Amino acid sequence: MPTYPPEPFRIKVTEPIRLIPPAEREAKLKEAGYNLFAVKAEDIFIDLLTDSGTGAMSQDQWAAVMRGDESYAGARSFHRLKAAVEDIFGFKYFVPTHQGRAAENILSACLVKPGQYVPSNMHFDTTDANIRARGGRPTNLIIDEAFDPANPHPFKGNMDIAKLKAFIEKTGVDKIPFGMVTVTNNAGGGQPVSMENLKAVADVYHSYKIPFFIDAARYAENCFFIKQREPGYESKSVKEIAREMFSLADGMTMSAKKDAIVNIGGLLCMNDDKLFENVKNELILREGFPTYGGLAGRDLDAIAVGLYEGLDESYLEYRLAQTAYLSARINEAGIPTIQPAGGHAVYLDARAVLPHIPQSEFPGQALAVELYREGAIRGVEIGSVMFAYPDPDSGKMIYPKLELLRLAIPRRTYTRSHMDYVADALAKIKSRASSIRGFKFTYAPELLRHFTARFEPL
């Protein structure tokens, strides 16, 4: 059992939560169409839906909020953020955005044309959808080990270099406006990408003159995994590793709501001056002036502080250990999770827990509903609800290789007793797993359907 380390902070402000009774939970599920996104937060006891914007800001971040300069253009808050972005990431240009999907939208609007392809290790939901919304085709080229939940490979987020080369040769450079890598790989278990692999990916993209962008939402966690697991990096600071990582790329998108530990905000960085001009014009149209990008000045200041706090190694050691502890406790209950434990979340193998439910009946969603039913705990399905799609050529439904329930842990928010409560609830579900049934859609939009879909039990 991994050691649960003492939190490298103490709690100054608390927020009350309440556990509603089982009958009330059942009524809330029906009211929400069995979609946990539609359940009110006040009816959740432990909320592991996402780690995006749900963490606790520090005293220094709240102090920075009070320094916020709300000038429309050229605010001091922007220049404080600019200094932090340049120091940590090293790109020539950047714009703030209201969150990561806005950065993805702007990048896709500027670069993606219908019929083009964007390769990555694994695109997450909003990246995938923003590319598809522009008529593009996101393509996942992760190593095969990523699809084996029990495989202990230390860098299961790695892109398969042979697959990448073959894909570029088959598709043609003219049909690939840019390439990506997601660190850590959210869709495949929060698994890190090694520096060795990042260098190989960069070499391939650049040999074909394809711009390389990193989806950097959880870059600090990825850098700490490199420090822990990759020979030659154990003596380097996380910040040094980050600078090396981003020196390989031509730009990045980032949701600051993760590793910058803020409630709202994002970044879009690049080195190309022509692209920067196009990005600024798109930003003004959709987000705001380039020095605020849809954010208040106080948000810019909170990000500037949070970017450094997210690199603190005592915090990162605690963060990854908390996730590993929850994973191990769930495994003790006989429920398999993706191994090794990722950075920000524990991913349950829903098909292993509910082997009698086919992918067309959404085993991950069934497990998510049952976890709320048991303990008023909210997770999110990462499987056929989120990622199944009709092939644009044949119309045949393409199902993902993994059916997962993700339990994303908000930063600096929950304690060991909360993690134990989650594991105990899952142990009770395991004992009755064979009685759980699947779901069907009663409503689903074309893109990002998991956010607003409605279901009924089968």
Distance between the termini: 38 Å
Integer tally of domains = 2
What fold name goes in the CATH topology slot of the largest domain? Aspartate Aminotransferase, domain 2
Instruction: Characterize the largest beta sheet: strand count, sense, and whether it forms a barrel.
Output: 5 strands, mixed
Shape: globular
The CATH architecture category of the largest domain equals 3-Layer(aba) Sandwich
Please render the helix and strand layout as text.
Layout: H1 22-31, E1 46-47, H2 59-66, H3 76-88, E2 93-97, H4 100-111, E3 117-120, H5 125-133, E4 137-140, H6 161-171, E5 179-182, H7 195-207, E6 212-215, H8 219-229, H9 238-247, E7 251-255, E8 266-270, H10 273-286, H11 297-309, H12 313-332, E9 345-349, H13 350-353, H14 363-375, E10 377-378, E11 380-382, H15 384-387, E12 389-390, E13 397-398, E14 404-408, H16 416-431, E15 439-443, E16 454-457
Parallel strand pairs: 1-10, 3-4, 5-6, 6-7
Antiparallel strand pairs: 2-8, 7-8, 9-14, 11-14, 12-13, 15-16
Helix pairs in contact: 1-14, 2-11, 3-11, 4-5, 4-10, 8-9, 12-16, 14-16
